[in-house]
Amino acid sequence: MLQPPRAIIAIDGATGVGKSTIAAALAAQLRSSGLTVVILSLDLLSYGWHDLAGGVRRGGECAARFRADGRFDYQPYDWHLGRVSDERVSAAGQVLILDGCGAASREFAAAAADPAILDAAIIARASVATRTRRISQRDAYDWSDMREAWESQHEALSYGWLPNLIVIGEDD
């Protein structure tokens, strides 16, 4: 039996640019076409504020497993408890949307061991003022003391290498 093609789409950008909103809208559109869509937030794969690179690596590994057979599993990080969950999450589908800082980075593709792992990538942008407002509306806790460390990890990743790259939004 022929397997349906699998697509992997990354939505990347700094914290507060609207990655999750874009991922949800894209997933809804694709689902309305009859496709089975899975959204994976790389935040669930980063084991704390200083592990963005680990989340990117684990995300790349999930993407490689998805590309191979349309499924993957992972142990999410519980940000409220500050530890990796004992529960394993399994997902399967035809389209994987990766939502998170580093999803379209060179380091992500290296972790997947496939420079062409992404079928498309969206880099979302928003001004610092917009991002700050969104973060304060979104999060019920103050993590401003960790924001600089998180964003510096994101800025250290390599970008600008993808042929299927779309950049949307405003910039400073």
From TrEMBL:
This is AAA domain-containing protein. It comes from Bowdeniella nasicola. SMART domains: AAA. It comes from the Bacteria. Residues 5-136 form the AAA+ ATPase domain.
